[in-house]
Backbone:
């Protein structure tokens, strides 16, 4: 039986509904902007200035400003161009400051690094990485770091040399197959291919077996891992901790993925512990050896901590490296004269070493080393670093409260003409070489080099002796902060640099590279702009052809 509602009752109901909505809207508005003003008042300059930044929109914060930009990564650059070296940004109701002033960065990463802990990730990523060197702080982080330092020492990384070469040769053979099918050349999206290469390499190094990614196999472990990472980028997981508990199909699949990953790694750890090969050099076996060793005073890692660190190494050991090598090849292809110079250096080493890359030969690749560093500077695979303050502090006159999230945004920093001279946006590996003429070509004021070095934040904050007559501009002075600095500098820096140079060496020896017609690479942030890693949007399309030796 239908109940009739007269117009007066309906009007009254709608009026009360509208009033309720208005009250809720007003309450949210008051709550949000009170939160904003409280946050803004906590950060102030000792001279009375307030921290600059675009005023946030209700509930959305500065997300609208970010998504209106051509590229979410470029939004940060625009913020700093508009407001200066310190900017306040609101991610909905979460507030942070972003800095590009090198003295502030030195203070955060080096001088007062104990006051700035690593910012905790969202709950899904925290569960994925667990109790690892990436997520820990304080004494626990120190214990993990000291145990893992030995695993990633220069001597240990050098023992992986043949693995790096072997897998790079496998990729070269695969590309040769493409060229044979196409004729004289082949158009290839090199980014996913390089992702597969470095995934297989890091898996082989970490756990002693690869995922057959180069063969195009979709390993079950990787499928689960990709699903978790994809889910972790969703705003519902970025801004809430309760969404994952809802009885949704996506959450059930998420739980199944976590269980599958845990089962795979737990089973692997048990098997290796039972077999225990003392001569093995993969990360898992080295950690198990350390666990059974009586030579260290440190408490060894538990099986769960071994699992957590293995996963952190696998996840972080392939994507950023693939981005860097892809961009390096893209930039070289855009500058044929630099490509030719890099190939000439590679050919010289190969001729001298009788067709085989050795550790000694790799250490002499000055120009290729400069190419890698320049690519890291121009297109950092990490968009930034995040820290959170433990106590109130002062950054170059700015009073910073406790529990303040501080972001270090790398791209504006790396392209600041104050540190790199005129036209720092240009790809010029020569800026890292010793030769004086090369330094002039790199657009650096060599005559005022000593003063430039004092101002440069990319030296790991080491200033050359002002009495020295050296006019060098090598990488030890102008070095990007892609790997961070201070006590929490990236554990795998040497590992990453080593494998990048090996892969580039092999590929530059066998192939010529041209940018595919009508293609232009664009660096982008991780999905939703909330991950700190970057990647080439749509990949990197190149035309490859065999070189004649």
Residues:
């Amino acid at each position: 039986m239908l109940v009739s509602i007269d117009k007066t009752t309906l009007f009254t109901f709608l009026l009360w509904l509208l009033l309720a909505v208005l009250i809720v809207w007003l309450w949210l508005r008051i709550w949000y902007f009170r939160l904003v003003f409280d946050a803004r008042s906590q950060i102030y300059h000792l001279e009375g200035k307030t921290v600059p930044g675009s005023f946030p929109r209700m509930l959305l914060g500065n997300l609208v400003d970010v998504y209106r930009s051509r590229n979410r990564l470029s939004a940060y650059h625009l913020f700093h161009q508009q407001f200066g070296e310190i900017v306040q940004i609101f991610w909905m109701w979460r507030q942070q400051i972003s800095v590009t002033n090198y003295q502030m960065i030195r203070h955060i990463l080096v001088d007062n690094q104990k006051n700035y802990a690593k910012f905790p990730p969202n709950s899904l990523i925290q569960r994925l990485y667990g109790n690892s060197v990436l997520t820990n702080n304080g004494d626990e982080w120190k214990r993990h770091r000291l145990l893992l330092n030995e695993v990633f020492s220069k001597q240990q990384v050098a023992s992986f040399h043949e693995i790096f070469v072997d897998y790079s040769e496998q990729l070269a053979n695969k590309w040769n197959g493409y060229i044979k099918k196409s004729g004289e050349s082949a158009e290839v999206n090199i980014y996913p291919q390089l992702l597969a290469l470095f995934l297989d390499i890091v898996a082989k190094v970490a756990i002693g077996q690869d995922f057959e990614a180069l063969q195009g196999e979709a390993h079950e472990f990787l499928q689960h891992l990709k699903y978790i990472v994809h889910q972790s980028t969703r705003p519902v997981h970025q801004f809430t901790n309760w969404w994952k508990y809802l009885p949704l199909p996506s959450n059930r699949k998420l739980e199944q993925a976590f269980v599958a990953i845990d089962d795979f790694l737990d089973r692997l750890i048990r098997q290796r512990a039972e077999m225990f090969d003392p001569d093995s050099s993969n990360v898992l076996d080295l950690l198990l050896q350390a666990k059974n060793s009586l030579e260290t005073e440190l408490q060894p890692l538990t099986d769960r901590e071994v699992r957590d660190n293995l996963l952190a190494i696998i996840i972080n050991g392939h994507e950023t490296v693939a981005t860097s090598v892809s961009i390096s090849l893209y930039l070289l292809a855009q500058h044929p004269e630099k490509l030719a110079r890099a190939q000439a250096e590679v050919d010289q080493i190969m001729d001298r070493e009788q067709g085989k890359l050795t550790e000694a030969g790799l250490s002499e690749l000055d120009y290729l080393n400069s190419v890698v560093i320049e690519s890291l500077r121009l297109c950092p695979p990490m968009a930034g670093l995040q820290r959170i303050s433990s106590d109130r502090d002062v950054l170059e006159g700015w009073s910073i409260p406790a529990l303040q999230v501080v972001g270090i945004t790398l791209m504006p920093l790396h392209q600041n003409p104050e540190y790199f001279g005129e036209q720092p946006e240009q790809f010029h590996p020569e800026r890292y070489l010793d030769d004086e003429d090369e330094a002039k070509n790199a657009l650096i004021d060599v005559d005022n080099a000593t003063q430039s070095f004092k101002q440069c934040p990319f030296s790991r904050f080491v200033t050359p002796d002002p009495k020295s007559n050296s006019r060098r501009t090598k990488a030890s002075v102008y070095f990007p902060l892609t790997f961070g600095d201070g006590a929490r500098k990236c554990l795998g820096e040497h590992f990453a640099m080593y494998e990048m140079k090996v892969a580039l060496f092999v590929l530059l020896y066998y192939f010529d590279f041209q940018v595919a017609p009508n293609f232009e690479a664009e660096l982008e942030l991780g999905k939703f702009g909330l991950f700190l890693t970057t990647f080439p949007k749509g990949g990197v399309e190149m035309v490859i052809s065999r070189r004649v030796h």
